[in-house]
Amino acid sequence: MQKELLAKLQNLTILYAEDEEGIRKNIADSLRYYAKEVYEAGDGEEAFSLYEEKKPDIIFSDIHMPKMDGIEFVKKVRQVDMKTPVVMITAHTDKEYLLDAVELHMEKYFVKPINLEQLLVGLEKCVEQLEQNRLAVLSVDNSYVYDFDNKELKYKENSIILNKKEMLFFETLISSQNRITYYEELQDNVWIDDVMTDSALRSLVRNLRKKLPTDIIYNLSGVGYKFI
């Protein structure tokens, strides 16, 4: 396995759902060799409870499980979360299951028995998807790309240097770019424990606009800001 991929996996958590204890323990132990932590679930209900509690970076799930099967479990996840990478594992090749699973936006689908090589392929696909998820493209101008992990803003591959508050302001707006970001959110996410004054906010926006090649910041007076 590539050293770079191994280093990335060591910072990630995995939720593994499988009702057959022997299989679950075996695969979970293999996953623990690579990941920061692995949470085990013996059925779909337990898996969803763990998902809500732990917010894992990656999900591996069997399809046929008691109480709630893997398809229903991942459907519940997808109702609130379209980004967490999912790998489905099953002993069945029934077309209905395959079609249902495809609609869940999976990274990979494996038929049992799964070997170590397949496990690593699934992990690599999940890491690739996680990295894609951390790149935010501005919907109003896709020349702007923000990398949350590296705290880097680029415009047509050219880096734009931001200070800490400018970076937090940009992150807050791009995380909710299809709506207005309210002043209260800017206080909580940008100024945090400091007091956000009108003059400080205007100064930040003015300086940020000078750094941006195009005019994309819109102010709705008395309400907040958004990208246009």
Task: Walk me through the topology.
Blueprint: H1 3-9, E1 13-17, H2 21-34, E2 37-41, H3 44-54, E3 58-62, H4 70-80, E4 86-90, H5 95-102, E5 108-111, H6 116-133, E6 135-137, E7 144-147, E8 152-155, E9 158-160, H7 164-175, E10 181-182, H8 183-191, H9 198-211, E11 217-220, E12 224-227
Parallel strand pairs: 1-2, 1-3, 3-4, 4-5
Antiparallel strand pairs: 6-7, 7-8, 8-9, 10-12, 11-12
Helix pairs in contact: 3-4, 7-8
Tell me briefly what this model is.
The protein is α/β, with parallel strands linked by helices and 228 residues long.
Can you describe this structure?
With about 230 residues, the protein is an alpha/beta fold. It has two domains: about 130 residues, Rossmann fold; about 90 residues, Orthogonal Bundle (Arc Repressor Mutant, subunit A). The strands form three sheets. The protein has a five-stranded parallel β-sheet, sandwiched between helices. Helix 2 links the parallel strand 1 and strand 2. Helix 3 packs parallel to helix 4 and helix 7 packs across helix 8. About 25% of the residues are buried. The mean pLDDT is about 90.
